[in-house]
Protein: ABC transporter ATP-binding protein
Amino acid sequence: MASTIVVQGLHKAYGEVKAVDGVSFEVEAGEFFGILGPNGAGKTTTLEIVEGLRKADAGEVRLLGQAPWPRNAALLPRIGVQQQASSFFERLTAREQIRTFASLYGVGSKKADDMLELVGLADKAEVRAEKLSGGQMQRLSIACALVHDPELVFLDEPTAALDPQARRNLWDLLRAINTQGRTIVLTTHYMDEAEILCDRVAIMDHGRILQSGPPAELVRGLDSATRITIETGAIAVDEARRLFQGAEVDDDGVSLTLVTRTPAPVLASLAERNALRGLSVRGATLEDVFLNLTGREYRA
Structure:
């Protein structure tokens, strides 16, 4: 099966800043693909080049078998784009917004109204866009990107600034979209989001892809210790340090944490002593992989 997206040797610079520096990747049909990275990593620039919104300095992009640049009108009905910032026509209701977008693709009003139902906005159809909540606006933005039934959907940080409930609801919607056979490319700052939604991810920094693959595979490849947490007092700190000499032991007055690379004997020993109150066991996550690759320094 031919890849839906093929990117080879992509470069884009702004003066001395290399926003994209030799990026290559492929996305298969029906795949949910994530591009992860800190602020300024080059995620959005990469996505805009692939979408045909920006010209690359060098490299090649094939989108559904065609070049997206110069602006390829034949591709527009086949792709849907939801950008970081939602922009809607002033003073139009949600229904008017989606019908306007639909009309640009020759799609009828019924299909537009059905799309509002799909994203859970049927009860907000007569509400003006500027009166919608942040999560509702994101849903409307995605509905506008999907109203013409595209084969490929680009989502640039679709859950940014949403509250946890709105994020979870949007995840359900994105899963449903992907299940219908659409290929989805997502950029996000949220590692839990990528770990749950994406079949594969590419981790970017300084304009380059540092590592890519299925989230679970990347996590398994990280040599990381296991954190075992129990209630303070379940076992004395001095006893824990004596019993588990290869482990780091820390007690903050609420929880006692053991960090070890051999969790099985530690858990067995705690169970023998009936010291499992408040037990929590945490292995490596995609966030650990991300921080290991990109560093922990703060970036505005």
